[in-house]
Write a structure and sequence with these properties.
Distance between the termini: 35 Å
Radius of gyration: 30 Å
Order of helices and strands: HHHHHEEHEHEHEHHEHHHHHHHH
Strand order of the largest sheet: 1-2
Largest sheet: 2 strands, antiparallel
Helix content: 55-70%
Structural class: mainly alpha
Number of strands: 6
Strand content: under 5%
CATH class of the largest domain: Mainly Alpha
CATH superfamily of the largest domain: Fumarase/aspartase (Central domain)
CATH architecture of the largest domain: Up-down Bundle
Number of helices: 18
CATH topology of the largest domain: Fumarase C, Chain A, domain 2
C-alpha cells in the first residue's frame, strides 16, 4: 500500500493541492503495474512526484484548465511539464473517471476516518457525563408532559448508545466507498487487464469495483451521505433535548455561557441555546445533501456528468459539517451546566402524579381488573389536577381504594429509589 499523507483536518482534504496529490498517487500506482514501462522512467516519475509542490501544481493545472476546460487533462499537462518525456507512460489505458472516482474514494475515506475519530471523542465525553449523572433523578417526559422519573445519566447513556450505532453505520459506509475503478471508458478493461487494476488498487488501499461503468456506482456514495445524515439527525436529537431543558419554564440544564458573552442586542438578561440551535440547523443541511446523493445514483447509460457538480459541493460540505457538528456537540456536552435541584423541583411539581402507574399495578396485584384499578387511580389523579392536593393525599382519603391497599402499601408506591432501581444496570449495559 502507498504510504499516505493525511492532512491534519478535514478541510485540508478538499483543497486542490491535496486532490492532485491523490490523483498523482493513483496515476503512479497504475503506471507501476503497466507492462513495458522502463524502470528508469518509472523511477524518474516517482522522483518528480516526490518533489512536487502540490500547491504550485494545482495553480498551474487551474491555469491550463482555463484553456482545456477539462480538469484531468489540465492536471496531466501540468505534470507533463515537470516530468518530461517519461510522462508518456502516465494515464495509459485510463479514462478521467478512473482517476477522479478512485481519488474520490481515497479522500472520502480519509474524511470518514476523521469523522469516526470525532465520534469516539464525543462518545467519551458523553460517557463521562453519563457516569457523573448516573444517579441524578429527573422527570421523564412524553408528549412534553411529565411521565415517570428517570435519571439524567440514563438520558446521556442513550446518547452514548446511539453514537455507537452511528459509528457502526459510518464504518460500514466507509467500507462501501473504499472501492475504486481503473477499467477504462466503459468499464471493459479494454486496455488494462483486470489484474493490473487489482494490483494498483491494492497499492492504494482500495478494493475493485466488481462491475463498473465509466464510474463507480453512486449507491456507494449515497450510503455514506445517508449515514452522515443519520449521524447529524442524532446530534440534532441531543441538541433539541438541551434546548428543551434550557427553556425558562424547565431550566434543568444550560449551555455554557462564557464571561463577556452576549445573548441579545436588546435584552441583557438573555442566555440562549445558540450552540444547540446551530446544530439543529446544520442537520437540515445534512439531510439535504443526503437527498442530493440519492439523486446522483441514476445516470444515463454508462455515465453522464450530472453527479459531478453535486459531489463537488456535497462531498466537502457534508464531511466538513459532520466534523464541525461532532466537535460542537462535544464542546456542548463537556460544558453543559446541569441543575439537579431544578430537576428535583420539577420532578415534584406534579405532586406525586408521576407515581400513578405504581399504584395501578399495586391494585392489579391485589386481584382487581386492570380497568377497574385504572378508573380508581385516575379519579384521584383528576383531583390532583383540579384541587391542587397531592396524589398520595388523595389516595389515602379514598375509602374504596383503602379497601384494597393499606396506607403503607400506598406510600411505598411513591418511593423514588424503587422506581429507579433498575436504572443503574441499564446505564451500565449501555456504557459497556
Amino acid at each position: 500500500m502507498i504510504p499516505r499523507y493525511t492532512p491534519d483536518d478535514v478541510g485540508a482534504l478538499w483543497t486542490e493541492a491535496h486532490k492532485l496529490k491523490v490523483w498523482l498517487d493513483v496515476e503512479l500506482a497504475v503506471t507501476a503495474e503497466v507492462p513495458g514501462v522502463p524502470a528508469e522512467d518509472l523511477a524518474h516519475l516517482r522522483t518528480v512526484a516526490s518533489q512536487v509542490d502540490h500547491v504550485k501544481l494545482a495553480a498551474r493545472a487551474l491555469e491550463i484548465e482555463k484553456t482545456t476546460h477539462h480538469d484531468v487533462i489540465a492536471f496531466l499537462s501540468a505534470f507533463e511539464e515537470l516530468a518530461g518525456p517519461a510522462s508518456r507512460h502516465v494515464h495509459y489505458g485510463l479514462t478521467s473517471s478512473d482517476v477522479v472516482d478512485t481519488g474520490l474514494a481515497i479522500v472520502l475515506g480519509e474524511a470518514t476516518d476523521l469523522v469516526l475519530g470525532e465520534i469516539e471523542i464525543l462518545r467519551a465525553a458523553v460517557k463521562k457525563r453519563a457516569i457523573e449523572h448516573k444517579k441524578t433523578p429527573m422527570m421523564g417526559r412524553t408528549h412534553g408532559i411529565h411521565a415517570e422519573p428517570q435519571t439524567f445519566g440514563l438520558v446521556l447513556a442513550g446518547w452514548y448508545a446511539e453514537l455507537g450505532r452511528n459509528a457502526v453505520r459510518v464504518k460500514a459506509a466507509r467500507e462501501s466507498i473504499r472501492s475504486g475503478k481503473l477499467s477504462g471508458a466503459v468499464g471493459t478493461s479494454a486496455y488494462l487487464e483486470p489484474s493490473i487494476e487489482e494490483r494498483a488498487l491494492t497499492r492504494l488501499g482500495l478494493t475493485v469495483e466488481p462491475v463498473a461503468t465509466q464510474v463507480v456506482p453512486r449507491d456507494r456514495h449515497a450510503e455514506l451521505f445517508g449515514a452522515l445524515a443519520i449521524l447529524a439527525a442524532s446530534i440534532e436529537r441531543f441538541a433539541l433535548e438541551i434546548r428543551h431543558l434550557q427553556r425558562t419554564e424547565v431550566y434543568e440544564a444550560e449551555e455554557p455561557f462564557s464571561v463577556g458573552q452576549k445573548g441579545s442586542s436588546a435584552m441583557p438578561h438573555k442566555r440562549n441555546p445558540i450552540l444547540s440551535e446551530n446544530l439543529t440547523g446544520l442537520a437540515r443541511l445534512m439531510r439535504g445533501w443526503a437527498h442530493a446523493a440519492l439523486e446522483d445514483v441514476a445516470l444515463w447509460h454508462e455515465r453522464d456528468i450530472s453527479h459531478s457538480s453535486v459531489e463537488r459541493v456535497i462531498a466537502p460540505d457534508a464531511t466538513i459539517t459532520a466534523v464541525f457538528m461532532l466537535r460542537r456537540m462535544r464542546r456542548l456536552v463537556e460544558g453543559l451546566v446541569v441543575y439537579p435541584e431544578n430537576m428535583k423541583a420539577n420532578l415534584e411539581k406534579m405532586r406525586g402524579l408521576v407515581f400513578s402507574q405504581g399504584v395501578l399495578l399495586a391494585l392489579a396485584n391485589k386481584g382487581l381488573l386492570r380497568q377497574q384499578a385504572y378508573v380508581m387511580v385516575q379519579r384521584n389523579a383528576m383531583r390532583v389536577w383540579k384541587e391542587g392536593l397531592g396524589l398520595e393525599e388523595a389516595l389515602l382519603a379514598d375509602a374504596e381504594l383503602l379497601g384494597h391497599l393499606s396506607a403503607a402499601e400506598i406510600r411505598a408506591c411513591f418511593d423514588l429509589d424503587r422506581v429507579l432501581a433498575q436504572v443503574d444496570g441499564i446505564i451500565d449495559r449501555a456504557l459497556r
